[in-house]
Amino acid sequence: MKNRSLQTEIDACYLYRKLAENESDPAVAKVFSQMSEIEQGHAEAFAQKNNISIDNLIKPSWRAKTLNMIGKIISYDYVLGAMMDTEKSLSSAIVRTKEKNQMELTGTETNHVKILWSILENDKEISGAQHAKFEKRHRSVGGNAIRAAVLGGNDGLLSIFSLVMGIAGATGGNHSVLLAGVAGLLAGAMSMALGEWISVKSSQELYENQMAIEMEELETNPEGEMKELALIYMAKGIPEEQANSMATEIMKDTTHAHEVLVKEELGINAEELKGSAIEAAFYSFLMFSVGGIIPLFPFILTTGIHAIMLSVLMSTIGLFTIGAAITLFTGKNLWYSGVRQILFGLIAAAITFGIGELIGVTIT
């Protein structure tokens, strides 16, 4: 457990350094460099306190290297979001542990998150526009896209695996499994796509109306909106002079001021509303299908017990892979998460197989 905590600090140091190296804005890159130095200090202090040799653990883990690879291939915004999500989860875990053991909360439990925002808010080289840009970027992208892709594949794999095993239990794994599986795959993927389209579209329509009202207020009473924005920042603990300076700079650009106001007042991230409902539906359909084809594929090649066993094997590998992928934004142990995912998936498949076999015998 101690080694794992130390490795978490080392990974954070490594990833913040990578964020700094790949950040085009010098002021924000400086923030990431400072965070990397802080995390390195945490790691060294933790190792010294617990008499752990840091030399053998100085290298980043596979999780940190994988996140860095995602940053190189896609965008380092994903890495930033995943790290913020992880640090928030770790902070919450510390709070829960202390509450469970009836230990006093000192306020330092969320230091990893607070330190980053403190640097952003107090560094004079970080302008209000840069601060808002950083916050918008980490909130709009974050680890959510990675999480959505993993969970979409998980939904497809689990649902089609259970369906396939149910039909196989009733029929002994004949050609009807493939027919039912394909029908279930298409139905499930289209249902997921339609649900995603409706969700995105309805949110856009709801928030666009509220955003239009906010724009009217901004155009008719800019001084009042600037004061309101400054008060919001002051409520977050930012000194009055700096809050007024940030609000004044943001109000210079009406479009950007509108985005910040709807986010702060209404809790709406304007960047998320720019996403295409059709695009969201397509990716939802795609990820469900990718997961669902895994347990179904063996029945394309063969039938009977061989297809059933191969389907179970491929699904087990898929479940472990998804469990391992989930650790990218939870920070949990890879083997624990992977085996847990396998256990839940096999239990669900066994139940449906048993029910299918019972139904098949009854009909016969």
Write the layout of secondary structure elements.
Elements: H1 2-21, H2 26-49, H3 62-73, H4 76-100, H5 111-122, H6 128-140, H7 144-171, H8 175-220, H9 222-235, H10 240-250, H11 254-266, H12 270-273, H13 277-296, H14 298-301, H15 304-330, H16 334-363
How is the quaternary structure best described?
single chain
- Calculate the terminal CA-CA distance, rounded to whole Å: 55 Å
Rg measurement, Å? 25 Å
Q: How would you state the average pLDDT, rounded?
A: 77
Describe the sheet with the most strands. Answer: none
Helix share of residues?
over 70%
> How many DSSP E strands?
0
Question: What pattern of helices and strands is seen along the backbone?
Answer: HHHHHHHHHHHHHHHH
- The global form is globular
Number of domains: 2
Which secondary-structure class do the elements indicate? mainly alpha
Q: How big a fraction of the residues is strand? A: under 5%
Which blocks of ≥5 consecutive residues have pLDDT under 50? 138-143
| Continuous helix count | 16
